[in-house]
Amino acid sequence: MEQRVTARAAGTEDGAAGAGHEAAPAGDTTGTARATGAAGTTGAAGTTPPAGRDPGTPDPRRRVPRTDDLLRDPRLAEATGRLGAAVVKGAVRQAQQRARDGELAPEDVPDTILGLLPDTASGLRPVLNATGVLLHTNLGRAPLSDAARRAVTEAAGPTDVELDLATGARARRGRS
User: Fold this and answer.
1) Cα gap 135→129, rounded to integer Å
2) Phi then psi dihedrals of residue 4, to 5 deg
3) Which of 29, 37, 100, 160 has the fewest CB atoms within 10 Å, i.e. the most exposed one?
């Protein structure tokens, strides 16, 4: 019959063998204690494998890459700088969940993350606003003609707004 010793006799300071552990049997010189889980079950971290899975087979979800390991990938580090941490972490979590759900192989997670990321951080996209030519619809403004764009570009640079270049005197506004 196996004999158990109390935690105090096992030499722990607070009298506890440790959460979820039994004290080593008397005469045990290996210094090992047995892990216990809920209702006295034993196993890795006190758990029993899910029904239908062999106790010797590792859980495939454990192969899903860790978030911090994924974020150290140079491709994702570059994307974080370009798109922001929140966008990249959202894609990481989404790909990890797909791998946990069995939709995706764990080794495909990094490439899947890259596929989930947008090309740019902006949510703005160019659109053709044909209705805006006649009616403002908050999609933009009516398109400018080539001549109008050239005039805007010219006016945006240095110009002689209120100066008569020939005389050097102040000119009147609105002259043509």
Assistant:
1) 10
2) -105, 145
3) 29
> Do the Cβ atoms of 44 and 65 come closer than 8 Å?
no
Measure the CA–CA gap between 70 and 89, rounded to whole angstroms: 9
pLDDT, block means (10 residues), the chain with 176 residues: 45 44 49 45 51 69 91 93 91 95 93 91 66 55 79 81 79 67
Give the closest residue to 76 by CA, choosing from 123, 107, 100, 111. Answer: 111
44/53 Cα distance (integer angstroms): 14
Contact present, 174 and 162 (Cβ < 8 Å): no
Q: What is the DSSP letter of 119?
A: S
Helix (H, G, I), strand (E, B) or coil at 134: coil
Which residues on adjacent β-strands are paired with residue 21? 35
SS3 103: coil
